[in-house]
Amino acid sequence: MRKHARIVVPIAVVALFLFGGWTLRNKLAADRQGEWVRATRGDLVTGFEVIGTLASSASESLGPPQVEEVWNFKISRLAREGSEVKKGQPVLSFDTTELQRQLEEKTSEADEARKQIEKESNDLALQSKDERLRLSEAEATLKKSALKLEAPPDLIGIAERKAAEIDHAIAKREATAVKARLSALERAARARITLLESKRHEAEATATRTQQAIERMNVVATRDGTIVYTANRNGEKRKEGDSVWKAERVIEIPDLTRMKGEGEVDEVDAGRVKVRQRVSLRLDAHPDEEFGG
Q: Which of 28-32, 73-77, 95-99, 126-130 is predicted with the least confidence, judged by mean pLDDT?
């Protein structure tokens, strides 16, 4: 028995050593691979990778204001890209040099037309006053000659009556001529004043539109958000001093609280895509962080 015991003990020790080494190896391997979990029966979940871009699901694009007869705009001020802005805050401005010149020109035209209207009105008043004075004199002469002609023939001589008839005819023609001149004078003055009034109204209307256009050259944010510059067809982003066409967009203000991923699925995987499937997103800037959606 003692001999057998001496044999068994070493065998047991060796077996224990081997078992412990196997267990330690599995534990070290598990530590390297992660924790062990119990397998359960269920559906096999698979996925595929789509490369794309992350964009806001709600974004406002801003560019030049729609101003009549202005097609090209020069950027004079541009909010810094990536800066946070609030609704109503100025974010984009365009040069107003040409509009200011046009405003001064139309304002000057309106003032000049107003002065001309005042001068025409004063001249008409003076000329009308002179002509009305001549008309009064002619009418007085006409009335005096008419009274002489109404006198009985036995009270005035033939010569005096003949002279009265001549004076009456001259006064009548003078009164008619003065009335015609006065009417023509007033018509011509009214025509000139009407033309000047039209010019004044047109100049004032243009000046008003120009002033409104100048005010619209300062574009404000339509929402809270972050400034993002928009690239043109050549992939270039705008900067202060650049010229842009009236239909171009210069900046965007996306809502970064509502984002969406945009990418193209390969044709072989298209049949596996369904509405409301779970997706996970990883950004190039944060490859170790996963976002669900």
A: 28-32
Tokens of residue 129, six digits: 């006053």
Distances, alpha carbon 75 to alpha carbons 105, 108, 213, 217, in Å: 23, 28, 15, 10
> CA gyration radius for the chain?
50
Q: CB of 67 within 8 A of CB of 245?
A: no
Name all contacts of 279-285 with Cβ < 8 Å and 24+ positions apart. 281/54, 283/54
pLDDT of residue 7: 38
Q: What is the pLDDT of residue 25?
A: 53
Give the residue, 22 or 228, on which the prediction is more confident: 228
Band of residue 5 on the pLDDT scale cut at 50, 70, 90: very low
Looking at residue 2, its pLDDT comes to 37
Residues shown for the chain? 293
Q: Give residues with Cβ within 8 angstroms of 210, minimum separation 6.
A: 99, 102, 103, 106
Model pTM score: 0.58
Q: Which of 140, 90, 73, 107 is nearest to 208 (CA)?
A: 107
- Residue 189's Cβ-count burial label (10 Å; 0-12, 13-18, 19+) is middle
Question: 151, 165 in Cβ contact below 8 A?
Answer: no
Q: How would you classify the pairing of strands 280-283 and 286-292? A: antiparallel
